[in-house]
Amino acid sequence: MTGKAKPKKHTAKEIAAKIDAATTNRGGGKAGLADRLGQEKGGHAKLACPLCRTPAPDIKSMQIHHEARHPKLPFEPEKLLNLHSSTPAAEVAASTSTSKPKPGIRGSLKK
Which among 50, 55, 79, 98 is placed 20 to 30 Å from 70, CA to CA? Predict the structure, then answer.
């Protein structure tokens, strides 16, 4: 003998939402990898914080991040790292570094 309750039926709105969720590209998985990395179409993250390398899509978001995470330092938009530029950030940092020798293992200056 089965229960007396009516069987649950799915509404048209719920079915449409499921179809939309299944067929819309939300940017996840391998399909959205290039979009997340910001190589082809521009991606999501255009800027990176020079202090902690946190990515952000625009200057306003980066300013909000800077005020929340680095409140004692002044916000300088010209120092932000552009992730969509043709030169990688590592090359830019290497070209602007000083000639001071970098410490080796555990802070020693030996080579």
Answer: 98
